[in-house]
């Protein structure tokens, strides 16, 4: 079983996310963000909506396990970053032609190190160039240090209404090993403060499969999690990333990781513990109490368009503003200084843009939606499928012996509603997705030869 690390592409930065340059108290009332300049948007086509991700690439220090697009710096030009984030947000919104933003996520890096004015300025820009509903989910990633905890109310005033805390561990020795700059005491204090400011809207990240971690120790951390957490928990398996200090120490034999069987047991233990305490697993790495699911993450997994702003951010949208009708995969320039220079010249720093075929879009949606408890519906399938409209998911997959074996073994559910992994199947979803994609590729090849498939444009 392989789960996804906090540096996973599914956190939208491939593509898993300051000084007092501004006067204190200069935070805008969130009511100012929500505009409705272009009439009713209660029912819009899918290409008229998107979620938006903003990447803040700076950290105080780099964790020993992380190879994400992060830069340790105490000399960030905050004013310049604000201007560039605002400019790129404006440009990409106009390029996309979307009329409504369904959620906003500030990731990093450590965006809770940014001045709240940067957050509010980006949100104001979004509201000027699209519709931002009053109840829209706006999430900020934060580290549970005492310095950042003291700024949470300012972020609330800036427009944030949901917090994702990078707890990672309730074990002091492991926090040091991971290179974290917070203590367990800091984490507990941050959680208490966050829950009072964002009640019912605080998520925590937990990392398992850590060096020398035991099942007994993990069990104790899970019980502590139940005692102190709010309504949402994200579980991430530690993966060794080449070039990181942790990778080096493991390869040199200084540290050892738990076996794959122990890691799998840790995951199951976490899921079962959370299920017994009122959570449900709505995605393989995310569990929440009813109503506390992350709307932003669900948008990714369901194939919604997304706009990525900031160094290294990724996007998937149709650039209607350029008169195009083909969905593109887009990547922004990685390094912050180069990114800012390009934004200042062109209004954006898109380094790469690649048109996606219908089949490529469909592959991505299958890979992401099968991670969720709801899976892929026939309705969504028909909205994306290059196949004839009368071909359902069942029609495509029922002839595959390998797929039928998955159904008969109880890990896959395939019926008139759609396709999804069972509760047991979510734990082995990688192998399920591989089987589905192999069969889908064979089907595409056959139908293309028979000229029964419109696969070039989404």
What fraction, in percent, of the residue positions are helical? 25-40%
Using DSSP, what is the number of strands? Answer: 17
Distance between the termini: 32 Å
Q: Beta-sheet strand percentage?
A: 15-25%
Give the count of helical stretches: 16
Largest β sheet strand count, sense and barrel closure: 9 strands, mixed
Indicate the low-confidence ranges by residue numbers: 1-32
Overall mean pLDDT score? 87
Main sheet strand line-up: 9-10-8-7-6-5-4-1-11
Tertiary shape: globular
Counting helices, strands and paired strands, the structural category is alpha/beta
- What is the radius of gyration computed over CA atoms, rounded to a whole number of angstroms? 22 Å
InterPro entries: Aldolase_TIM, Coproporphyrinogen-III_oxidase, Elp3/MiaA/NifB-like_rSAM, HemN_C, HemW-like, rSAM, rSAM_sf
Family: Belongs to the anaerobic coproporphyrinogen-III oxidase family. HemW subfamily.
Keywords: Chaperone, Heme, Iron, Iron-sulfur, Metal-binding, S-adenosyl-L-methionine
Protein name: Radical S-adenosyl methionine domain-containing protein 1, mitochondrial
């Amino acid at each position: 079983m392989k789960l996804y690390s906090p540096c996973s592409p599914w956190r939208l930065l491939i593509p898993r996310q300051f000084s007092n340059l501004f006067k204190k108290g200069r935070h805008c009332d969130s009511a100012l963000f929500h505009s409705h300049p272009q009439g009713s948007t209660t029912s819009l086509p899918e290409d008229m909506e998107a979620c938006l991700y903003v990447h803040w690439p700076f950290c105080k220090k780099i964790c020993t396990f992380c190879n994400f697009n992060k830069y340790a710096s105490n000399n960030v030009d905050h004013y310049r970053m604000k201007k560039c984030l605002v400019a790129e947000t404006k440009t990409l919104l106009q390029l996309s032609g979307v009329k409504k933003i369904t959620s906003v996520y500030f990731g990093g890096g450590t965006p809770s190190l940014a001045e709240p004015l940067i957050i509010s300025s980006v949100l104001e820009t979004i509201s000027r160039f699209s519709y931002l509903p009053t109840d829209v989910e706006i999430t900020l990633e934060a580290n549970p240090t005492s310095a950042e905890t003291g700024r949470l109310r300012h972020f609330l005033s800036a427009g944030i209404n949901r917090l994702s805390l990078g707890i990672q561990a309730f074990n002091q020795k492991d926090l040091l090993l991971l290179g974290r700059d917070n203590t367990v005491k800091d984490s507990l204090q941050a959680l208490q403060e966050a829950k009072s400011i964002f009640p019912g809207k605080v998520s925590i990240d937990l990392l398992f499969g850590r060096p020398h971690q035991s099942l007994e120790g993990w069990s104790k951390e899970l019980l502590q999690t139940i005692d102190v957490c709010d309504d949402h928990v994200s579980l991430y398996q530690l993966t060794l990333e080449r070039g990181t200090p942790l990778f080096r120490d493991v390869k040199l034999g200084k540290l050892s990781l738990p076996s794959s069987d122990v890691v799998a047991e840790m995951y199951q233990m976490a899921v079962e513990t959370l299920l017994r305490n009122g959570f449900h697993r709505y995605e393989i790495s995310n569990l929440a109490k009813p109503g506390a699911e992350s709307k932003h993450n669900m948008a990714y997994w369901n194939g919604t368009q997304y706009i990525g702003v900031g160094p290294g951010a990724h996007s998937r949208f149709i650039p209607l503003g350029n008169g195009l009708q083909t969905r593109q995969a887009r990547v922004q320039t990685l390094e912050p200084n180069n990114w800012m220079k390009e934004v200042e010249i062109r209004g954006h720093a898109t380094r790469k843009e690649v048109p996606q075929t219908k089949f490529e879009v469909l592959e991505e949606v299958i890979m992401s939606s099968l991670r969720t408890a709801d899976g892929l519906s026939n309705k969504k399938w028909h909205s994306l499928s290059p196949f004839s409209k009368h071909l359902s998911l069942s029609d495509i997959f029922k002839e595959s012996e390998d797929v039928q074996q998955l159904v008969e073994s109880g890990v896959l559910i395939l019926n008139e509603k759609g396709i999804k992994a069972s509760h047991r199947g979510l734990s082995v979803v990688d192998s399920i997705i591989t089987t589905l994609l192999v069969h889908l590729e064979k089907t595409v090849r056959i139908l293309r030869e028979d000229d029964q498939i419109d696969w070039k444009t989404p």
